[in-house]
Task: inverse folding
């Protein structure tokens, strides 16, 4: 484990790790307390508490592993083993083992405090290693005493065979304690069996331990279903039937308990385990090991929130924004009425104040959804470490801008595309050390992963200093596959862009390396689905740079509303570079393409009226050109008019047609009519590229 | 519960759902009666989410003619199908009586159906339903008695499905 030298405040990913593990640890401390109390009272540890502890340890292991805290993951792993042995009856929770367990939990707590303070202390790894060694010595499995045999049980063999190891252990344990084992058969109505079954299960848990619930074959009538519930209880069949309001015939005693059957009426009164018992035992206990005061205080002050809850919140904010839009519209209409102009102006003032607050609210909700890219970048560097070992290539991954923040949902969706790209870079782009030396490059290759924020976009680049892509060979391949007509005249950039074409793998034929290439078309479509764009640049022998341009958030976007005929469309503002009215000579035809001359560049032109086959109205004589840009691709979109800038929530379009080319979704601008939101990535990448001559 | 048991649970729960659906055939059905070009049809009411007047629809590009466009239901964006097209009737612009029946699909998705008019909710016994007289590729699932005659019970899946009926 890396120990950090200078202390620093933890970053966002660390804070998240801390709050999550702290929550788990808190629960473990509670459960451990309950176990210690029962143990000191000489009682059997509650099986459900052991199970919960086991799951908690398992979660801690996964969490620590994910954050690269290997010594902590190892510690959690040992705790998990310890608990597994106890819950399966392979080992007994002796006082020594419980003490070790307690020590481990406390050590974990200390680790979290140190992490919150800026990093693990030097030598922490040694402390963990020492404790792990002691656990290993103490937890030798041979000492587990076998509990009573499960033989001589009068239950259907099929039922007994279906028991898991854990359930079998619980059965033996209950037999050893002299409890009766009953098979309760419940014949339930199909329509309502779930509710009824959970009622019965709850009732059974009150009077004993429900060992297993299994659907059972048998001649239930039509519309009925049978279950066999294996129960351990100190009650006999008759009292159990009475408690459950079942016919005594439904309960078959597989093995009578050791208690005198005559004492059953009395035992039923004392039996139901109450939670007060262990608590009372705890009060009576002296000198219980007090947890240090430092660990009682939370080390992090964050709250974990389900991202779906944030979505709900975001939707509400979006709906508020819609209402606001309606209010604004109403104020405008009121102002236009003769004699009501003053009221209209007042309402408009109120609306503007509301609008400012609403924008603050939106910004706050968006802010909550933002997470640093570090989470993804850390995963990538782990993958890179593994690849370096597996492929025998000398390469290092350099990371910059890991604190750049993006919408949580976008970050999640970026993991796969970025993983593909980094793998490709290792696998194909970088040469072997010998090849590199032969062309005078340092033996060690470099892959630079960098994220920067530019306005409302985040730009992520993955650059390698490998062999580069041979554009001519990509073109040849594309022609061979029939993706491009043999006569096509493509620029360097257009040829390179073909690596994203479906059906053209960048594998061996192009880059002459071993291994499998990953479909770059998948990378592009994943990124487009997030409203972003993927582009590539490469120089032969020098290296390749892949650039992903992504919006910061998907939740609320600012949009430019444009009009064509009677229709309106919303264009995400992050893709709008500028808007202009082209002069008469700026629009030129070049073969089948229409181009817009703009400061020395020739941009491809797309007339939205033609693209979307809008028939209403007449085309504007002087159309507006909305210059769209994503990454370095640009497009001039011609529209009849501009209707202003609005905040919108993009909603999916529901119905039988799943996706429409050029449409990302739709939105309601507050006047109860739907406005389509343009899919700029699709429009820009479908339009032919053009460059300065 | 063990993993094996919870697996067989799933199987049983599915079987139970299928069987309880079969049991339901004995109960009463509620059907929403609508009309197209003077003929009456019906849809199972449990699939109807709401009925709205056809407001201005926003046309969608690159879609078949039977998709009339989308409308906003309190911010939710829903495609509207020309139901006449499904029944091979000539399209007509919405009139005063026209309505959009908003149907909820099996997976929670929503589609609007433009019809000439919406009439009443018809209650029939499952036993009174008759098999359809013509094969419509599954579009009509049964005939339900209504007054002196019958109305055709339309399959919500088929009327909403994009590539059914051409």
Result:
């Amino acid at each position: 484990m890396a120990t950090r030298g200078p202390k620093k405040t933890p970053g966002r990913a660390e804070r998240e790790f801390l709050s999550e593990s702290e929550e788990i640890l808190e629960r473990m401390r509670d459960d451990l307390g309950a176990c210690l109390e029962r143990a000191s009272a000489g009682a059997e540890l509650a099986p459900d508490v052991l199970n919960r502890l086991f799951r908690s340890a398992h979660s801690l292991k996964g969490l620590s592993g994910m954050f690269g805290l290997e010594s902590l993951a190892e510690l959690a792993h040992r705790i998990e083993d310890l608990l597994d042995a106890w819950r399966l009856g392979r080992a007994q929770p002796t006082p020594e083992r419980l003490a070790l367990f307690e020590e481990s939990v406390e050590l974990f707590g200390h680790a979290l405090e140190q992490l919150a303070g800026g990093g693990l202390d030097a030598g922490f790894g040694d402390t963990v290693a020492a404790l792990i060694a002691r656990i290993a010595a103490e937890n030798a499995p041979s000492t587990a005493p076998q509990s009573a045999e499960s033989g001589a049980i009068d239950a259907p063999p099929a039922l007994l065979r279906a028991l898991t190891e854990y359930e079998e252990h619980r059965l033996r344990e209950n037999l050893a304690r002299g409890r009766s084992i009953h098979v309760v058969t419940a014949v339930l109505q199909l329509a309502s069996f779930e509710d009824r079954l959970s009622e019965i299960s709850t009732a059974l848990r009150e009077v004993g331990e429900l060992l297993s619930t299994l659907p059972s074959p048998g001649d239930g009538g039509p519309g009925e279903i049978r279950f066999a519930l294996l129960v351990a209880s100190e009650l006999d069949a008759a009292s159990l039937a009475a408690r459950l309001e079942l016919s005594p015939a439904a309960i078959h005693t597989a093995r009578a308990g050791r208690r005198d059957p005559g004492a059953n009426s009395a035992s039923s009164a004392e039996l139901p385990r109450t939670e007060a018992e262990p608590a009372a035992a705890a009060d009576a206990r002296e000198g219980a090991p007090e947890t240090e005061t430092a660990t009682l205080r939370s080390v992090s002050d964050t709250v974990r929130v389900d991202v779906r809850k944030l979505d709900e919140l975001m939707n509400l904010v979006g709906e508020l924004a819609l209402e606001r839009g309606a209010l604004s519209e109403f104020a405008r209409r009121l102002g236009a009425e003769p004699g009501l102009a003053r009221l209209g102006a007042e309402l408009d003032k109120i609306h503007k104040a509301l609008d400012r607050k609403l924008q603050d609210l939106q910004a706050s909700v968006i802010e909550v959804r933002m997470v640093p890219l570090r989470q993804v970048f850390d995963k990538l560097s782990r993958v890179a470490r593994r690849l370096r070992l597996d492929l025998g290539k000398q390469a290092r991954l350099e990371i910059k801008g890991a604190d750049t923040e993006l919408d949580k949902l976008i970050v999640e969706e970026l993991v796969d595309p970025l993983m593909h790209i980094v793998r490709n870079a290792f696998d194909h782009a970088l040469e072997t050390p010998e090849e590199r030396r032969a062309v005078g490059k340092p033996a060690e290759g470099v892959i630079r992963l960098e994220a920067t924020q530019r306005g409302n976009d985040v730009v992520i680049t993955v650059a390698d200093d490998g062999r580069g892509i041979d554009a001519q060979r990509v073109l040849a391949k594309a022609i061979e596959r029939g993706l491009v007509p043999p006569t096509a005249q493509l620029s360097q950039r257009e040829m390179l862009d073909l690596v994203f074409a479906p059906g053209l793998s960048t594998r061996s034929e192009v880059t002459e390396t071993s291994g499998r290439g990953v479909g770059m078309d998948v990378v592009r479509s994943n990124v487009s689905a997030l409203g972003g764009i993927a582009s590539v640049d490469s120089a032969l022998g020098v290296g390749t740079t892949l650039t992903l341009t992504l919006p910061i958030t998907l939740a609320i976007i600012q949009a430019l509303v444009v009009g064509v005929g009677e229709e309106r469309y919303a264009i995400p503002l992050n893709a709008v570079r500028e808007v202009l009215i082209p002069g008469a000579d700026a629009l030129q035809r070049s073969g089948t393409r229409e181009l817009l001359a703009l400061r020395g560049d020739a941009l491809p032109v797309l007339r939205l009226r033609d693209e979307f086959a809008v028939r209403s109205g007449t085309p504007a004589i002087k159309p507006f050109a909305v210059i769209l840009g994503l990454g370095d691709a640009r497009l001039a979109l011609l529209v009849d008019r501009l209707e202003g800038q609005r905040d919108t929530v993009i909603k999916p379009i529901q119905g039988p047609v799943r996706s429409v080319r050029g449409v990302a979704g739709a939105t309601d601008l507050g006047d109860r009519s739907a406005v389509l939101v343009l899919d700029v990535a699709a429009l820009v990448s479908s339009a032919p590229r053009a460059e300065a001559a | 519960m063990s993993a094996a048991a919870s697996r067989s649970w799933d199987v049983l729960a599915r079987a139970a759902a299928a069987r309880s659906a079969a049991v339901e055939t004995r109960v009463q059905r509620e059907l929403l009666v609508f009309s197209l070009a003077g003929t009456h049809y019906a849809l199972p009411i449990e699939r109807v989410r709401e009925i709205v007047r056809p407001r201005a629809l926003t046309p969608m590009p690159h879609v078949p003619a039977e998709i009339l466009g989308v409308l906003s239901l309190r911010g939710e964006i829903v495609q509207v199908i020309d139901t006449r097209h499904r029944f091979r009737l000539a399209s007509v612009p919405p009139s005063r009586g026209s309505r959009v029946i908003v149907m909820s699909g099996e997976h929670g998705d929503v589609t609007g159906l433009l019809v000439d008019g919406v009439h009443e909710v018809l209650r029939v016994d499952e036993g009174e339903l008759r098999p359809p007289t013509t094969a419509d590729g599954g579009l009509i699932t049964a005939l339900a008695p209504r007054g002196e005659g019958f109305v055709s019970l339309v399959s919500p899946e088929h009327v909403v499905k994009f590539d059914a009926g051409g």
